[in-house]
Design goal:
single chain; alpha/beta; Rossmann fold; GMP Synthetase, Chain A, domain 3; five-stranded antiparallel β-sheet; 26 strands; about 25% strand; binds adenosine monophosphate
Length: about 500
């Protein structure tokens, strides 16, 4: 099987249905999309690329993204998606590591395609040459057969520590993720529309797969990125949108709903489903989101190594306010998604009883084939068929997983484990606090001490003494920060994840 077969099938089934949109403008039907992908495939093959060769896509969000992605798959090639915000030097490192042969770029991020070495060619998606690739010439009439275990998507980890690793995601992995979406995340109708507001090089782009399976519309906002007001307008124009968003983006959408004074029903004109994940969503934030926008949220937890497929906290779970454990549940990441099993294990690999914190392990058909040309890292990550995620968490008796922190974020102070997230949850409720990140700083006496970076709310000036009293009131004394740093903003990576490594360096 090849994921491009999904597109070929839709083109036969619903050739005239509009499929790709740039803002409110339709740019391709399913038949046109498939024809363009087949032509891109033919061009790549004519350029000498063989099935299994790597093609980099280093583009801002663009409707052509999906034509090129499926074009490369059509020819049996492996796509290397690269985040548009990476430094050109980081991209060159990925090009070399992946031994890529071609790249598709956009001129806003690569003004001079000659900057890259080692590639046979670079195509600018904004240039006339790319128009010719998609619109002229014969396409490959046959989708190249692939083994389900062949790599489709060579995704480089965000590398908050060390060099990124190439995660080999197969056709089977993505098919599994796509089918799982319908059972665990959302029902999709052909009239639905998915908007790409988060980078298409990441999980947001992969949600093209279930939406293609269902014959829905794919919408790239005209701004090419995330503008809250634009999304509200786009949804009103095209019909309610579904999208994937990191918690920071969800917050801005909710702020916009409040700024526009919208009721939950009015929000429903713009949004069908907002899937959130990728970083912790604090309980207070999701509660505000539900209150403001209604029951249109679903949480997922996954990682590049098992894309979008770990656990899900469904709309129904979030709505069940009368449940005796509702408070714990909305702070959890939900239950295992259908295609996978989840367990929490100690360092020896043995499962821990409910409530105990250990490393989260995932097993199933969504789990990567391994790291590209890195057997040591693969052997460390996949043991006896289980993916060791590096995330710490605990399962409850009903199978709800609550994440604590990445194992490396854990603070050990005076021999006691402190999970930063627990302290952050408390501080977020303190008056005048907008955002907070807690890290450990080396300390000669305690090993580590807790340091909190606090972003005050506009116009507020919370002070360390008041925050300390607030913590003393709610958590064990040894967990409370010994030091507060007030900052204008927190360092975040391109996906909105707080860079705790950078904060740790600052306090070291
Ligand atoms: P990435 O591989 O870049 O997608 O990052 C995956 C990591 O993001 C996971 O290993 C978790 O640490 C974190 N993550 C993903 N989803 C969630 C979620 N729903 N809540 C908290 N953290 C998450």
């Amino acid at each position: 099987m090849n994921l491009a077969h999904l597109l070929q099938r839709k083109a036969l089934e619903h050739p005239q249905r509009p499929a790709l949109f740039s803002g409110t403008q339709p740019v391709a039907t399913h038949a046109q999309w498939a024809r363009r992908a087949a032509r891109v495939g033919a061009r790549l093959r004519a350029a000498g690329l063989q099935p299994g060769d790597r093609v980099v896509i280093f583009m801002r969000n663009h409707p052509r993204y999906l034509e090129l992605l499926f074009g490369a798959w059509w020819a049996g090639l492996v796509v290397v998606p690269v985040n548009a915000k990476l430094h050109l030097r980081e991209v060159q490192w990925i090009v070399d590591n992946a031994q890529a042969r071609r790249a598709f770029v956009t001129s806003d991020i690569v003004p001079d395609p000659a900057v890259f070495t080692g590639l046979d060619g670079v195509i600018d998606a904004d240039a006339a040459e790319c128009d010719a690739w998609v619109n002229e010439g014969e396409g490959l009439d046959r989708v190249e057969d692939r083994d389900p275990g062949d790599t489709a998507w060579l995704f480089y980890t965000s590398g908050t520590t060390g060099r990124p690793k190439g995660v080999m995601i197969t056709h089977r992995n993505l098919l599994t993720m796509g089918l799982g979406y319908f059972n665990d995340v959302d029902h999709v109708d052909p009239g639905d529309a998915i908007a790409y507001a988060a980078p298409m090089s990441h999980g947001a782009g992969l949600y093209a797969i279930p939406h293609l399976m269902a014959g829905a519309r794919h919408v790239v906002p005209a701004s090419g990125g995330f503008e809250a007001a634009e999304l509200f307008d786009l949804g009103r124009a095209l019909g309610p949108l579904s999208l994937f968003a990191a918690p920071t983006i969800v917050k801005r959408i909710v702020d916009e709903a409040q700024a526009q004074g919208l009721t939950p029903d009015q929000c429903g004109q713009s949004f069908k489903t907002i899937v959130y994940g990728g970083a912790p969503m604090y309980a207070a934030d999701i509660r505000r989101a539900l209150r403001t926008m209604g029951s249109r949220f679903v949480q997922i937890y996954g990682q590049g190594e098992s894309p979008m497929t770990g656990t899900a906290l469904s709309r129904a779970h979030l709505a069940e306010t009368g449940h005796p454990r509702h408070e714990e549940r909305i702070a959890s990441v939900g239950v295992a998604q259908t295609p996978v099993r989840i367990r929490v294990a100690g360092p020896d690999g043995r499962s821990l009883p409910p409530g105990e914190v250990g490393e989260v392990l995932i097993r199933g058909d969504s789990v990567m084939a391994g790291y590209w040309r890195n057997p040591e890292a693969t052997a460390a990550a996949i043991r006896d068929g289980w993916l060791w995620t590096g995330d710490m968490g605990a399962l409850d008796a009903d199978g709800f997983l609550t994440l604590k922190d990445r194992s490396k974020d854990l603070i050990i102070s005076g021999g006691s484990n402190i999970y930063p997230r627990e302290v952050e949850e408390v501080l977020l409720h303190a008056p005048g606090v907008a955002e907070v990140a807690v890290v450990g700083a080396p300390d000669p006496e305690w090993g580590e001490v807790v340091v909190a970076f606090v972003v005050p709310q506009p116009g507020a000036a919370p002070d360390a003494k008041a925050l300390d009293a607030f913590c003393l009131d709610q958590i064990a004394r040894f967990k409370r920060p010994k030091r507060y740093e007030f900052v204008g903003s927190l360092p975040k990576n391109n996906y909105g994840k707080v860079l705790k490594t950078a904060l740790r360096e600052r306090v070291a």
